[in-house]
Design brief:
Number of strands: 2
Radius of gyration: 30 Å
Shape: elongated
Distance between the termini: 114 Å
Largest sheet: 2 strands, antiparallel
Helix content: 40-55%
Strand content: 5-15%
Structural class: mainly alpha
Strand order of the largest sheet: 1-2
Length: 116
């Protein structure tokens, strides 16, 4: 009768590394592919934006500078970005529209009072 302590231990298969590394490598390959595709399919940034009279409103450098501010301060969690931000925090775009509307109403009221 053999004793459990004297029996040799089963060794781990030599394929365990392949079984662990293959899905991990495939997962990273998919992530890299999606990242490359995201940059390739990014919307173009025009060289300049002009108003109907032809005056330059802002340039591509202004857009890129705005993107850098956005990334620097982590603003993805603030406001509505393509309808997603409101799930994460207050919708500051609606708040700023409200402030602009109040300012416009105040300006119109002051102009009407001046006419009287």
């Amino acid at each position: 009768m053999s004793d459990a302590l004297t029996e040799p231990l089963e060794s781990l298969s030599s394929w365990w590394r392949v079984a662990a590394l293959a899905p991990m490598a495939a997962g990273f390959a998919v992530l890299i592919l999606l990242t490359v595709k995201a940059y390739q399919n990014a919307p173009p940034i025009p060289d300049k934006f002009v108003d109907p009279s032809g005056a330059v409103v802002f340039t591509a450098d202004d857009v890129i500078a705005g993107q850098q501010v956005f990334l620097k301060h982590g603003l993805m969690d603030n406001g509505t970005i393509r309808g997603h931000g409101d799930y994460l925090s207050p919708d500051f775009s609606a708040q700023s529209l409200h402030i602009l509307a109040l300012g416009l109403a105040d300006r119109i009221a002051r102009e009407r009072l001046r006419r009287c």
